[in-house]
Amino acid sequence: MNKKLRTRNVEQLFNAVLGLKDMQECYAFFEDICTPNEILSFSQRFDVGVRLLKGQTYQEICAGNGASSATISRVSRLLSDDNDGIEMAVKRLKETE
Q1: CA 88, CA 61: separation in Å to the nearest integer?
Q2: Residue 3: pLDDT over 90
Q3: How far apart are CA 30 and CA 81, in angstroms?
Q4: DSSP reduced 3-state for 97
Q5: pLDDT tens digits for range 26-67
Q6: Are the C-beta atoms of 64 and 72 separated by less than 8 Å?
Q7: Cα diameter, the chain
Q8: For the range 50-58, what are the long-range contacts, defined as Cβ-Cβ under 8 Å and sequence gap of 24 or more?
Q9: What does the alpha-carbon distance between residue 42 and residue 29 come to, in Å, rounded to a whole number?
Q10: What is the pLDDT of residue 1?
Q11: Model's pTM, two decimal places?
């Protein structure tokens, strides 16, 4: 975990996110603190992670969501880190389906 992120402000943000109750609250919160492009970028990176974990190729991912090879490569590197954040989130999504 990146020690630079362990700040009071980041923990306050994460606690706020954890306190959101439903999809509508998520939309309201993120629309207030992020630009539309930031939200779309976050969602695209997450989708790249989902697709990489499914075994899709860079070409398939690019065709599927328009991500650049640089974005796909960055997410691929993150998947090889020890944090496992994307994998954990994908697993939990599958459990709720």
Answers
A1: 20
A2: no
A3: 26
A4: coil
A5: 999 999 999 999 999 999 999 999 999 999 999 999 999 999
A6: no
A7: 40
A8: 50/86, 50/90, 52/76, 52/79, 53/79, 53/86, 53/87, 53/90
A9: 14
A10: 65
A11: 0.88
What residue segments make up the domains of the chain, in order of their start?
Answer: 1-33, 36-97
DSSP 3-61: GGG-SHHHHHHHHHHHT--SHHHHHHHHHHHS-HHHHHHHHHHHHHHHHHHTT--HHHH
Q: Report whether pLDDT(4) > 80.
A: yes
**Could you tell me if 52 and 75 are in contact, meaning their C-beta atoms sit under 8 angstroms apart?**
yes
**Which residue is associated with the tokens 């969501």?**
65
CATH code for the part of the protein at 36-97: 1.10.1270.10
pLDDT of 2 over the 80 cut: no
Q: What is the CA radius of gyration of the chain?
A: 15
What is residue 60's predicted lDDT score, i.e. its pLDDT? 97
**How many angstroms from the chain centroid is the CA of residue 25?**
18
In single-letter form, the type of residue at position 36 comes to P
